[in-house]
Amino acid sequence: MGPSGTGKSTVIKHIVGLLKPTSGSVIVEGVHIEKADEDTLLEIRKKIGFAFQFGALFDSMNIYDNIAFPLQEHTKLDKKEIEKRVKEAVTMVGLNPKEVLHLFPHELSGGMQKRAAIARTIILKPDIILYDEPTSGLDPIASDLISRLIVKLQKELGTTSVVISHDIKESFKIADQMIMLYDGKVLADADPEFFKTTPNPVIRQFIDGISELVV
pLDDT tens across 119-178, in order? Predict the structure, then answer.
C-alpha cells in the first residue's frame, strides 16, 4: 500500500515481467524474471492470475465467454468441461451462474463486474493472484464483499495473494503482511499490528488520512 504514484502498480508489473528493473532482482518461484526468456516468462505467467483495477472484462462478450476465454486460449478442454469450470468459478465468487452468465458486463453492477473478473482470474487455478486496487470505485458494502472474497479464495485455492491498495480499512481485513511504499521505496514491511500502532509520522499520516504534509 501507499500514496498514489509511489510505485504500487509498478511492482506487480515487474512481477509478471511487463517491466524490467533498472537494478536489483525480481524472483518468482525461483526464477529471475528480469533474466528470463519469453518462453520462461510465459510459463510463469500461466501460474499468475491478474485481477485488474477496473475488471478489464471484454465488453463485446457475455460473462460466460469472458470467464471461459483463458481456458479456450490456454487449454484443450472440451466444451462440457469448460462449461463446468466456468460455473464452478462463478459460484466460488458468489454469483449465480443462471443469473449472470448470459449477461454482458454493462448489465452488472460494479461489484458484480469485479467478482466476474476475479472468476476469470481464478479459472486457470493460479498459484499467485495479483489484485490491482480490487475495491477501487466500490461502495463500502461491495468493498467488504470483495475483501472477504479475496481471503476466502486464498484459503480455498491455497494461493498467494498480492493486493495493491490504498484502501486502509479493506487492507487491514485482507493482509497477513503489509508493505508500505513511499517515494518509490519500501518504508515499512511488517504485520498489520505494526501499522496500527507505529508512531512513524509518514505512516500515521497515511493510515489516519491526515491531509497535512509531514515535515
Answer: 998 898 889 999 988 888 778 888 888 888 889 888 888 889 999 988 888 889 889 999
What's the pLDDT tens digit per position in 38-47?
A: 999 988 988 8
- Sheet order of strands, 48-51 included: 48-51, 128-132, 160-164
Please provide the size of the chain in residues: 215
Give the H or E element holding residue 50: strand 48-51
**Domain at 8-175: CATH architecture:** 3-Layer(aba) Sandwich (3.40)
Residues 6+ apart with CB under 8 A from 147: 134, 135, 170, 173, 174
Specify the 3-state DSSP secondary structure of 167: coil
Phi, psi of 80 (to 5 degrees): -65, -45
Interval 98-121 mean pLDDT: 90
pLDDT score recorded for residue 52: 74
Residue type, 89: A
Beta-bridge mates of residue 31: 28
Q: What are the cell numbers at 13?
A: 508489473
Q: What are the structural domain ranges in the chain?
A: 8-175
Q: How far apart are CA 75 and CA 2, in angstroms?
A: 37
Residue 181 CA to residue 170 CA, distance in Å, equals 17
Q: How distant, in Å, are the alpha carbons of 36, 47, 161 from that of 17? A: 9, 13, 17
